[in-house]
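During the first year of the project, the team set up a workflow for recording each protein of interest as an amino acid sequence followed immediately by a discrete structure-token representation. This format lets reviewers and collaborators read both layers of information side by side without switching files. As required by the reporting guidelines, we include two representative entries from the current panel. The first entry is reproduced here exactly as it appears in our internal archive.
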Amino acid sequence: QLQLVESGGGLVQAGGSLRLSCAASGRIYAMGWFRQVPGKEREFVAAISWSGQSTKYADSVKGRFTISRDNAKNIVYLQMNSLKPEDTAVYYCASGNFFSVSIPVVDGWGQGTQVTVSS
């Protein structure tokens, strides 16, 4: 059964950096990161194909966030630089289909990790 566990969240000042990790068990394919704040819908952040050849980012994080993966360890990363207070959210990793589709198709979610960016 698919299991995803996020780590690396925390408190950081605006302009700082964090790297989130998602450790997966079971078979995974493309991976993505999403985020959610209280009272808001969960939103797409970034995705990476199984091979790592293709990546996709939300406009709000382009140029600041980088998604990568280590298939040998079954880990996907989200490097977050130049963080802004509006990046504050619970970040979730997910396995699914995020390419060649108009809407993401998620097979499983992690439990989430809190990222808080202070001004």
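The second entry, processed by the same pipeline in the following quarter, appears below.
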Amino acid sequence: EVQQAESGGMSVQIGGSLTLPCTPDDREFDWGWYRQAPGNKCELLATINSLNRTYYADSVKGRFTISRDSAKKMVYLQMNSLKSEDTAVYYCAAGPRVRWREIPREGCDYWGQGTQVTVSS
């Protein structure tokens, strides 16, 4: 159901689920996930802070869940009921810009290379 794609990305069927792991800078106090599709803006999806308080964008609320494992120093994005519109490059982020929900004007790749997620039938 979940397959490797080009450039190290992942492919998943419509309606399926996928969880993305990340090992962000644990010296920060806020972490989040962004995504960007070709021709679209960089979009903030979810954030979580050191007290495990979370924020979700309306576009993913109820379908995506951000979580954190402090012992493993990892952050996760669980994605359920995936739609074709969820196809994008997903980026893990950390720091004050996440705390203030800033959108990098350069685009999402400000946060790094990201992971391609392709949702299709």
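For the second entry, the following points were noted during internal review. The mean pLDDT is 94. The chain is about 5% helix and 45% strand. Both points are flagged for discussion at the upcoming steering committee meeting.
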